[in-house]
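Quarterly update from the structural biology core.
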Amino acid sequence: MAKKLRMDWWLFAVSVALALFGVMMVYSASAMIALRENNQYSYFTKQLVFTMVGIVLMLGISQIHYKRLENEWLIIGCLTITMILLAAVFFFPPTNGARRWLKLSGFTFQPSEIAKPVLSLFLAYFLTKNEKTVGEFKKTILPCLMVLGVLSAMILVEPDLGTVIVMAAIFTVVYFTAGARLFHIAAVGAGILVVFVGALVFQPYRMARLGSYLDPWQDENGVGYQVTRSLMAVGSGGIFGEGFAHGQLKLFYLPFPYSDFIFAVVAEEFGLVGALLVVLAFGFLLWRGTRAALMAPDRFGKLLGIGLITGIIVQAFFNISVVLGILPTKGIPLPFISYGGSSILMTLISVGILLNISQHAGFVELENPEDESDAARRTSGRRRVARARTREA
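Predicted structure, tokenized:
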């Protein structure tokens, strides 16, 4: 058995800090919008509740051995439930032209947030079970692509291209870590690129967004409205920012300031310094999460950890890049910080699994207990020989 170590408190600390900072920023970005609707604390209260619940879940899950997730029926059940929930969103009325949410008693839930960790879980299990046939198309590559394809297709028609891109990144990184050949990675990447181009061509509004990305100021009050207002907010923050809750662009100028473009509010109120600190926090999270995954005692833990941290960091990179105009505009939340109960819950649950993996990092999982005894005896023998040599010297 792998020895259990202390939890990675650095990973825990940066996750909690980002989540609590997110609660604070949601209040700043949403207060005036919420006041116009009814109660200025409505968004803040919901985000605080979900964050507290998420932290409790994160701590609870960190105490459950990740090997319990390596169960075929559990994974089949997770995939089935995810697909049912993804199909159920089409029975609810659309929001801003998209059907991404289940709406129950004043609360909303976004099933596509579940799809990312579930995909990581499936890939880790399947690529561990089929370790010897990772490079075979029919036995391994095709089943993985089928699961990715079904989940992505259901999310793409919502429509939600951003989440599909994140899932494609998870698939690529996990499959590469599992030992796939570069040729297969390139072939899969080419197929994903074809799907991406098709999603652009057959949706005129996406092509318009691509055009605005190339020159957003050409139609700053039309297609380029989101990115130009975002850049104005980022630029107006200067080095040290306007101060917490003193940002101006969030006051009915910046679209979705409490969700997709909350990083622009961070940059306006805390300036370049604050924005860089957030980026550095995600960089630190990447280091600790990747460290936990790569030091996992078995293949399943390694692949699962890599998939979970990839999903969080790629989504953060994507969101920040959109806000800064580096990538075309696409609605996707900033992990930990953007408003959204399903987003913060699934992110903290993913970190909880990483925290458990970190407690077993650095030790080899021995299948036979006798092997552990033999290893202990050999280590003890080497120590006795070393002590004897020391006395002779």
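The CA atoms of residues 247 and 269 lie 5 Å apart.
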